[in-house]
Amino acid sequence: MESWAWNGIHLDLPDDWELIQFSKDPRSGRCAFADRYQLRFELDWAVVDGPPDFARMVSDYKAKLEAEEVTDLRSVQHAPWYGVFGRENKLPISRYGAFFPARSLLLEIVFLWPEEQKANNAFEGRVMDGVRVPAQNDDALRQWHAFGIDATVPDNHELVECNVHTAYAEMLFADQKERTQETFLRRGMVSEWLDQPLQEWLESKLPQGYTVISRRQSTHASHECWQLEARITRPVLKDWLWGTRHYQACAWICPQDKRLHMFSRIAHQPKNAPNALPDIRMACCADHQRGF
Predict the structure, then answer these.
(1) What is the rounded CA–CA span in Å between residue 21 and residue 38?
(2) CA atoms within a 13 Å half-sphere pointing along the CA-CB vector of 168
(3) Going by C-beta distance under 8 Å and a sequence separation of 6 or more, which residues neighbour residue 247?
């Protein structure tokens, strides 16, 4: 099983299921997972005012599915989940819903089974038992875990971009006013493209218009890390209003997964509170996590 964390929703799914569709809207969205053959699992979320009437919701849902000619319908339950099982185009499908008060989220999950395979109720139960929606912690931080990226960002920062392709995953977060941005990057096949020392590569990622003010190298649990800090070279009005923009970045190659991991932050740093920024962190394996 592989752990995922998306929009404050944590779950464990088979490690051969890949996330192929996702939404970035924190209030309402959907993620879909597939194995090498077909769609296998869907997750939908919506922020609601309170718990719905699940008995009525299941009844209405069954009526809707009957109208769509879904067969073998029956109500199913695995507390706190309520749902409906049926066959759609001969394929067994289980749909469940549950309310999580910690973030006032209504979740719906859908299991889609291959035609030659029976629905595994015990497996569905294990997955449902593993769905977690933690309340906001004291540090006001939220974990995201997807595509090999394990990132911790401020709870009120939203996912702005997510770019994924072969041996490459990048996630960009920002606050609502985009005064602070965090980027997390994971790249594979390092020997095929990294043709310079890691510290030089990290400096090549410096945004235009910034000047390096410090460089550091450290080693922890066999992870050799390079870190730099820079600030905007020519401040403009918003830097005088909100504090000079600083850039921080850290990169390393994990000896366990052989991937390059890098995270960075651009943020205004007020002169009267230079250390007021919340922590951000990135992990690559059980032995190593970095933050600033």
Answers:
(1) 13
(2) 7
(3) 206, 207, 210, 229, 230, 231, 264, 265, 266
**Which tokens belong to 191?**
């020997």
pLDDT band at 274 (very low <50, low <70, confident <90, very high): low
Helix (H, G, I), strand (E, B) or coil at 220: strand
**Calpha distance 115→241 (Å, rounded):** 61
Tokens of 140: 């006001």
Mean pLDDT of 104-129: 94
Q: Average pLDDT over the chain, rounded to whole?
A: 94
Burial 40-72 (b: 16+ CB within 10 A, else e): bbbbbbeeeeeeeebeebbeebbeebeeeebee
Mean pLDDT of 79-90: 92
Place of tokens 């000079």: 244
Whether pTM > 0.90 for this model: the answer is yes
